[in-house]
Design brief:
globular, about 140 residues, Serine Threonine Protein Phosphatase 5, Tetratricopeptide repeat, mainly alpha
């Protein structure tokens, strides 16, 4: 029981440190922490999305695209709060499309930034802080 609690605390610490590194534009360090991340399903989901954000901001658009897709295909349902889930789903789709457009110029952007901003307002303060809208 104690080992499980310690593992969970370590996983949360790794995620929090990675989040801090992304906010400081230290993407390589964040990605190192997030690589093979293990923890509660919610944090695994967020770690995949945070990895996509780090790759995107590091201008590795193909990796970002793959990670946004992985989040949408395998992890979106691990976000339990519906307002956060709705926001993060559209957030991942919005930025996935932007990443795709960087290496496929025929891509049309279909998601409204205004719609994303509407959903952001409904998400929890923590989620808005973790995943801000930055173009």
């Amino acid at each position: 029981m104690l080992k499980g609690l310690l593992d969970k605390l370590n996983a949360n610490r790794r995620y929090t440190c990675a989040e801090k590194f992304v906010s400081e534009n230290r993407y390589k360090e964040a990605l190192e922490l997030l690589y093979d991340y293990e923890g509660p399903p919610l944090y695994v989901a967020k770690s995949v999305l945070l990895s996509a954000v780090a790759q995107h901001r590091n201008l590795d658009f193909k990796s970002a695209y793959k990670l946004y897709s992985k989040f949408l295909n395998f992890h979106i349902n691990d976000i339990s709060r519906s307002n956060d889930r709705d926001y993060l789903e559209l957030y991942a789709k919005y930025f996935r499309d932007y990443a795709l457009k960087e290496f496929d110029q025929t891509t049309e952007l279909c998601i409204s930034r205004n719609r994303l901003l509407e959903l952001q307002k409904r998400a929890t303060l923590a989620t808005r802080g973790e995943f801000p809208i930055i173009d």
